[in-house]
Amino acid sequence: MSQSAYLYFVEGSEVQSLSLQELQEQLLHYRDQVSKTGAQLGWNYEEAAFPYTIESIDENGSWFYLKGKNDLYRAIVFGVGEEQTEDGAKHYVQVVLPENSTHGDKGKANELCKYLARKLKA
Fold first, then answer.
1. What secondary structure letter does DSSP report for 93?
2. What's the pTM?
3. Which of 33, 7, 5, 28 is nearest to 18 (CA)?
4. Deepest in the core among 40, 62, 73, 83, taking most CB within 10 A?
5. CB 88 within 8 A of CB 70
6. What is the pLDDT of residues 67-88, one digit of tens each?
């Protein structure tokens, strides 16, 4: 069974919404940061901290997925959307672990959610 997590943008967040392209840029920034950390430590930390490639965006432009580079990591799906509430529209980022995800994917998804939540104050 797949699992989902949502990061909602609230009053006080760095941004009130993200496009799919902006979300990809946030993940690329994370990858760049961990590669710089690895360079300082003298080893390829990027491969351990971000063992994924960013793959296809759907036709509607509402999701993309990270494809694992080895057997320990398979996939994490990222999407953006909005939900109508009494106070207006609430924008969010959804992170989904598909049924075939590994424990490694779950750990990386948690790590990426924490990073995005801290960075965007979501």
1. E
2. 0.88
3. 7
4. 73
5. no
6. 999 889 999 999 999 998 888 8
